[in-house]
Amino acid sequence: MDLTLKRVMAYLMDFLFITILVSFIVNIKIINPYLDKYRETYDKYNKLIIDVNENKLDTESDEYKTKMVDLTYDLNKYRVVSASISSILFLGYFGALQYILNGQTLGKKIMKIKVTSVSDKKLTILNFLTRSVILNNILFSIILIVGVYVFNKNNYYNLSLIITYIELLVMSLIVFMIVLRKDNRGLHELITNTKVVAVDENSDVVIIENPKNVEKNVKKK
Length: 221
What we know:
Layout (H helix, E strand, L loop, with lengths): L2 H24 L8 H19 L8 H17 L1 H21 L5 H6 L1 E5 L7 H11 L2 H13 L2 H28 L6 H6 L1 E7 L4 E3 L10 E2 L2
Antiparallel strand pairs: 1-2, 2-3, 3-4
Helix pairs in contact: 1-4, 2-3, 3-8, 4-6, 4-7, 7-8
């Protein structure tokens, strides 16, 4: 199987696992005291979208703009706890745990791939934490969490739009770099001087599977 496809499948497995874990934790009221208010606000947001789709409300109207700004702010205010938990778990799983497991997550273990250093130096936990921050947009999540307490509703709405566009740009850049670059390294890997390689779990061999940049099997150091 192609290395890029292995990476995609591993990430999807990891993402699904963490998402399920986050969903379970944030739906515990003792942990997330804003749960009911978030659900109530989310229902109002959905109703607003339905009204727009059914042409009951014009997106150019002042009423729509006011409701959208208010609901966007309230949704993010009531999801501060859940967003914080999500950021911590993603950072812990893709950062700390991957460091402890020597460059592998559960998904990477299943797909038999791992993160290594380009320069063959031992990676530090900072390398993995930085990879996680970039790959999972954790920095942008933190900005939105802090922004709720710093900006007024209108400015926060504008900030959320800007963050959404930047997140889309970063993720698109990472995907295109992994697919199009000969070494299949994304932005998060160039910054952290890392790469992903295929491994043979039953031997002391790292297998570089990249049809664009074929290398012979190299013994792990």
